[in-house]
Design a protein that fits this description.
43% of the residues are buried. The chain has helices spanning 11-23, 37-40, 62-75, 106-114, 123-132, 139-145, 150-163, 171-182, 193-209, and strands spanning 3-7, 28-31, 49-53, 77-82, 98-101. It has nine helices and five strands; from the N terminus they run E-H-E-H-E-H-E-E-H-H-H-H-H-H.
Length: 210
């Protein structure tokens, strides 16, 4: 049985995926999005362990997605971690498998679910992912933030968010980065990320000036 992590490639998705990877070190990481999730799940076998982080359920593909989820949950393991609004008239109780879905970042939800299986501290990464998605005002994140200097955490969030800007489809780069984060390393220590973040920030400033 293989373990798969299907996650979004933005700041929250990277942090949530890294937390899941820290708890499942042999997992294969696959970056996806709502419209591509159904097709991407074909990479996994029905008896595999599948962890989905920060991916909304596409209303157009909902019946087929739920059928696929059911296949995996019945023969393997399915863990769905997300916070995006569900399709109208659809309840999270209709999602097969283990479901963590509420108004909190995927990073926070992943941290709460996996923290007991992780030896390295992942609270900082949970905060970074929450800040990256503007979902850092929850009671859980506020409590975790008491253990860290806000300035340092916000700096690390800026490095991550600005460092991945414009690199949406560079999946090899993102797999290296998510492995780096899963080892409880801060974004700023990943090769060249600070430099790229500074370049992207300057580009944004130049565009706003024009």
């Amino acid at each position: 049985m293989a373990t798969w992590i299907f996650t979004h490639g933005d700041g929250d998705g990277l942090c949530a995926g890294a937390i899941a990877l820290a708890a499942n070190r042999d997992a294969q990481v696959y970056f996806t999005h709502p419209f591509g999730l159904l097709e991407d799940l074909e990479n996994a076998s029905e008896d595999d362990k599948v962890i989905i982080c920060d991916i909304a359920l596409s209303e157009h593909k909902l019946p087929a997605l739920i059928e696929k989820f059911s296949e995996i949950a019945s023969k393997g393991t399915l863990i769905y971690i997300d916070h995006h609004p569900l399709p109208e008239t659809f309840s999270k109780t209709n999602i097969p498998g283990t479901v963590l879905h509420r108004q909190a970042s995927a990073s926070e939800l992943a941290y709460q679910f996996f923290q007991g299986s992780i030896s390295n501290p992942m609270d900082r990464l949970a905060i970074i992912g929450a800040v990256a998605d503007y979902m850092d005002k929850t009671s859980v994140i506020n409590k975790l933030l008491c253990n860290w200097d806000k300035r340092t955490v916000y700096f690390e969030t800026g490095v991550l968010v600005q460092g991945i800007e414009g690199r949406k489809r560079e999946y090899g780069f993102k797999r290296e980065l998510i492995t780096h984060l899963a080892a409880s390393n801060p974004p700023s220590t990943f090769k060249g990320l600070i430099k790229v973040a500074a370049q992207n920030t300057r580009k944004e400033e130049t565009q706003s000036e024009n």
